[in-house]
Design a protein that fits this description.
It contains four helices and eight strands, in the order E-E-H-E-E-E-E-H-E-E-H-H. With 162 residues, the protein is α+β, with helices and mostly antiparallel strands.
Length: 162
């Protein structure tokens, strides 16, 4: 049983102890990973990766929910709706996360999204938080690679310059 003990105290999934979820902890985890981020006027944390922009939200009645939302850089037309839904449904059928969906914005432009939500009502360690951030970003990027392959012409138009 000593394997799960440190100085006679049970170790709970990481070197640090449990602490409530907070935006400050999300930013600290991103800094430990060397990720650049911005904070908007509402205090929401966002970052950009090659295929998508991400929001890292702490929400819920008691700030217990971590919601990581990604938006693919491409913009689709109404004619692309069915194919986009098929890509999302295929992903959602085969993968546990992130949830994938399409949605029109206020201007009528179709966007592809990925979203990963976790309830941390009982708190979490720094290691658990970092794992969720890395997992959400990496698996979202794998999904967006499929979107890039489905809509190569759109991706070429919206691909960031190197």
């Amino acid at each position: 049983m000593e394997f799960f003990m440190q100085d006679g105290v049970p170790v709970l999934a990481g070197a640090g102890g449990l602490a409530p979820l907070s935006t400050a902890r999300v930013k600290a985890a991103m800094e430990r990973e060397g990720w650049a981020y911005l904070v908007d006027e509402d205090g929401d944390v966002g970052g950009g990766w090659e295929y998508a922009t991400f929001l890292f939200l702490v929400t819920g009645e008691h700030d217990e929910l971590l919601s990581i939302r990604a938006t693919w850089r491409g913009e689709l037309e109404l004619a692309d709706f069915t194919r986009a839904v098929e890509v999302c449904n295929g992903w959602n059928t085969d993968q546990l996360w992130p949830k994938a969906y399409v949605r029109f914005d206020e201007e009528g432009t179709l966007h592809v999204h990925a979203e990963h939500n976790v309830d941390f009502e009982q708190s979490l360690t720094d290691g658990q938080l970092t794992q969720q951030l890395i997992c959400a970003v990496n698996t979202s990027m794998v999904f967006f690679e499929q979107v890039n392959e489905t809509f190569p012409d759109v991706w070429e138009r919206f691909r960031p310059e190197e």
